Amino acid sequence: MPYTHILVAVDLTEECDPVIHRAREIAQGSGAKLSMVHIVEPMAMAFGGDVPMDLSQLQQQQFDQAKERMERLKLKYPELSGANAHMTYGQPRQEIHDLAKTDGCDLIVVGSHGRHGLALLLGSTANDVLHGAPCDVLAVRLITKK
Ligand code: AMP
Q: Which whole-number Å values give the CA distances from 96 to 56, 58, 76, 113, in the listed order?
């Protein structure tokens, strides 16, 4: 059965281009719809939830920066704009799974690594997304530049 709706998860680093290219190839080959998602992780969550300072300004900057990078990606990949581009706050695994479920996606595409690097692959988002996924998951192998 060909895929009908593919969700590509982007971390907004330069590593996301090969991941998008692969997702796009599969979508074109199977006539599937393609959507992308970026999750902005709440800073308090990244720091373990117990930070004795006000992170709201930093959080806003992080969100604005992510929004700007998303806009650049949308210009580069016009098929990934409008209703096909999602940005939410939360924990990547949870948000990616929820979106895949509500949008009826049958394939999630992630990079084998991204911000956390190859050394942390086992603890990476790719590994996280795989566990309990509501559909197939493809981890696009990314070669780290030395
Ligand atoms: P990492 O866990 O940072 O090594 O990232 C592995 C892959 O997970 C990336 O190549 C992306 O496809 C995906 N990913 C990581 N962080 C996010 C995020 N915040 N939002 C969406 N996808 C992400």
A: 24, 24, 22, 16
Please check whether residue 24 is in contact with residue 109, taking contact to mean a CB–CB distance below 8 angstroms: no
Q: Residue 117: phi, psi to the nearest 5?
A: 75, 165
Instruction: Give the range of the structural domain holding residue 51, as residue numbers without chain letter.
Output: 5-142
DSSP, collapsed to helix, strand or coil, labels residue 87 as strand
State how many domains the chain has. 1
Contact 6, 109 (CB under 8 A): yes
pTM of the model: 0.90
Ligand 1 mutation target, pool 97, 105, 125, most atoms within 8 A of CB: 125
Q: Does ligand 1 come within 6 angstroms of the Cβ of 99?
A: no
CATH of the domain at 105: 3.40.50.620
Which residues are registered as beta bridge partners of 78?
A: none
For residue 43, the one-letter residue type is: M
**pLDDT tens-digit map of 55-70:** 788 889 999 999 999 9
Sorted by sequence, the CB contacts under 8 Å of residue 135 that are 6+ apart come out as: 100, 105, 106, 107, 108
pLDDT in tens, 40-50: 988 766 666 56
